[in-house]
Design a protein that fits this description.
Number of strands: 5
Helix content: 40-55%
Order of helices and strands: HHHHHHEEHHHHHEEHEH
Distance between the termini: 68 Å
Shape: elongated
């Protein structure tokens, strides 16, 4: 009965979070509204297949689908595999290929909470130029690096616009996944000085089709925009939560700077 109550509360929470009425969700899951009502009240116990069907109808992420299964008394069905595990070798190959194809421009792979997992040489060159070389093995969270006062912020001339947009995207993530980890990330970002003001700041003048990241250090200016890609039809929690962010130059001057950095690094490597 305790498990039924746990599942019932979780199901009701997800339905309300997604903005569906009982009738709408019942239609999406192809069950009767009466049956759904009984499940939400804890008066009926779901089968394993019913949990998965309802989770799919609600578009619940795989990690939270596992949590719903556990709440209903079943074992999780979706694996969470370390990215370095042998069974993900082909996925890792694909990610490395994407990062290599982006050279000399930056590209990174992050998890759902913006912890850095992989980066190409272009990303390393950008970071080294702005803040200096990182010690190998240093844990990096790109959300903190972007929003916190002392990392990228001093060099990002349109930080208010970029940080406001980024934090709103984390707010959307928190609304979608409902996890404590994402809620804690959002709370941490909101606590940084200037973030609350950035969220309510009027939009700046638009001069292009996308919001760029405008970096300046000394006499060097960089104008970049980003794209974010995910893996199609993931069947693993780790893979569903991966994001591949690629940075592209907004002008030829920025592109040439990255090409020059790449050539300089290649020459240095050839001499060593």
């Amino acid at each position: 009965m305790s498990q039924q109550r746990d599942f019932a509360a979780s199901l009701r929470w997800w339905r309300q979070r997604k903005g569906h009425s009982q009738l709408e969700l019942a239609g999406r899951a192809d069950i009767s509204q009466r049956h759904l009502s009984f499940l939400e009240l804890g008066r009926a116990a779901p089968s394993r297949d019913m949990v998965i069907r309802l989770a799919a109808a609600l578009d619940v992420p795989l990690r939270q689908q596992n949590a719903l299964l556990v709440a209903a008394g079943f074992a999780p069905v979706w694996r969470q595999t370390d990215l370095a595990a042998p069974e993900l070798a082909q996925i890792r190959y694909a990610l490395d290929f994407i990062l290599a194809q982006q050279e000399p421009f930056p590209a990174v792979v992050v998890d759902r909470h913006w912890n850095l997992l992989l980066a190409n040489a272009g990303a390393g060159q950008l970071v080294e130029f702005l803040v200096g070389p990182l010690v190998s093995g240093t844990a990096v969270n790109l959300a903190d690096a972007l929003v916190a006062p002392g990392v990228l912020r001093p060099y990002l001339t349109n930080w208010t616009e970029v940080a406001g947009y980024f934090v709103r995207s984390v707010e959307a993530d928190a609304a979608v996944d409902g996890t404590t980890a994402t809620a804690e990330l959002l709370k941490r970002l909101l606590a940084y000085d200037g973030v609350e003001a950035a969220l309510v700041a009027p939009p700046g003048p638009t001069s292009g089709p996308v919001l760029p990241m405008l970096f300046r250090k000394g006499d060097v200016s960089l104008q970049l925009f980003t794209t974010i890609a995910t893996l199609g039809t993931p069947q693993d929690v780790t893979l569903q939560e991966l994001r591949i962010e690629s940075f592209f130059p907004m002008d030829e001057e920025t592109a040439q700077i990255f090409r020059n950095w790449s050539k300089a690094n290649a020459a240095k490597a050839a001499q060593s």
